[in-house]
């Protein structure tokens, strides 16, 4: 019911925000046939730009090929405009012909297309469109930038990420803070529960819309509150191309699209929008089961649109960068200053050089602010913040060099995986075929991904044993691992959750069981090594095991040793089940990337039900695509 | 509140400007420096499916309360300062002596490129005048900046 109401609201919104529905346009100057002949209409209706302006699916996704993605009948002027580009063109020609036509104000990009091809006089053609002109005069139109906020700390699912566009006032804007952000997002209500929210997001229950707001809000939200690094990719669209895009953006104001998390999501819609600016670019071919932001960046690069790359570190990275430049004593002092600004007046701080005072106070200040942003405003925090800033201001220092950007996300390995492995399990040889739909595990080639963060969806492994048996080894539905080291300033909680089907040790056999496994933990960093400990809980059901559902608790400990050339993993786990059995598992793995998209992974595994255990080892060739 | 925001977002214009700050929760003259958590939901699932819970406009809001999010050409220093989180950043940049937020402020105040480094320097020197206490709000900070500029021969021309 709520949903219905919202829909009504948005229809009302169109009536209020646009200068009257276009179909009510006054006095057409003539029928389309007097303005353009049928052959011209047919030819122009097939033009890539016209198809792009109507958001026709060129075969990029499976639903509705040859029809418009726009799920909003008010967007079309012809009754069958969503599926017949020629009818829509004819209706548009008719509606846009009159010089004082209200439709011109609603469809400035369509007008530009038709006027250009039919040779209409475009002088003052949109002069009567005051709302559009007003909006347009506020839109900077110097440069378009694709923006990709990377994963945020301790939330591997955010690796899938979000993308948005930014419009700058010039090719070298004075301040990106004054630029505009173009977002496409599902319009949901937070009143819906999380599960319903996720389901609708995945299955298409929410309409998606474009919105335009201030880029500084984007920086604040992603960079400061969510602590995500932001990657920015300037595009080489020229002024005329940007004019198409901005005109069309106006046409999309308040227009509903279907929103599907997997394919018709923000990244895909932004590509479509860019497509209207440069229809000749190869942006929408060969699509697209799971459109990920990182694909979008790669697609734009491949099509030759990307002209640069900027990196904007999150507040936490900027803080770490500064803290790394302090010595251990200074770091400890900064840590104590966070909650004890009275130390600013003690010799411990005062005997430092002015430049060191500046650096220590600045680190303390930034740490305090990162913490402060998690809670509501407190008087003591505000007082301490100002005291630290005064110390920063009173003690000048040369600026530290900027944060060195890590490997950019588009240089990471492909998001799908196939693997072929050979191994032995308790003396039986097997070959294994594996396929992983998405995305990255903690031992995969680390470049372009946050260390210690893994998310896998639909992870299949099938084994053929030397006795001819073929068995499903694993069908992981979701496996998320967030191993975040605790540092001087922040003490994050690591966590993992893993669920699906897998071969489970039961007495002296292995049987397919359904399981859910997970828990919280802690991790540290010692050089390149990250040791960790998790408290683990597990629920499982194995057909032949009695009782049917078993629940266990225990612990899981291990370490990651991530270097650019080899990634090592070690883990041991012991679980005690309420059904009077226990299970152990130990595993050591080494992953050796041989190129960006190929790796060798060796792994040995010991698993046991009570005391009856078995050992296996395998070597796999892994190819990402 | 969320629903009202969503309604406003769907309507696409600031028809309910009296009910909601167009710039979002916490946006406005009363914004204090060193603000805490804002109204933005940091939500695992929300992030996963790239949703938004409203508070999105089409860049059409205009500043009745100093919170204009309508973009570069109509920003002035006031509306920028009144935006969530900006005051804190400006404070830090002034303490350090330069920074992106301070540049954005000087650009939006119409300060010529040749005078911006000087503006940064003056603001750095007068940090204590601009931020005399931890409880100043955006309106007060703007007044303080203005009076510092009034007293400076070179920056005086930019004040109204």
UniProtKB/TrEMBL annotation, chain A:
Keyword Cell membrane recorded: no
DUF7843 domain residues: 43-116
Occurrences of domain Lnb N-terminal periplasmic (ranges): 132-302
Swiss-Prot/TrEMBL keywords: Signal
All residue ranges annotated as the DUF7840 domain in the record: 407-624
Disordered: annotated span: 394-413
Record's compositionally biased regions (Pro residues): 398-409
KW Signal (keyword) present: yes
InterPro entries xref list: DUF7840 (IPR057162), DUF7843 (IPR057165), Lnb_N (IPR025178)
Signal peptide annotation: 1-24
Name of the protein in question: Uncharacterized protein
Annotated source species: Salinisphaera japonica YTM-1
From TrEMBL, chain B:
Signal peptide start and end residues: 1-19
Pfam family, one: DUF3015
InterPro entries: DUF3015
Keywords: Signal
Protein name: DUF3015 domain-containing protein
Species name: Salinisphaera japonica YTM-1
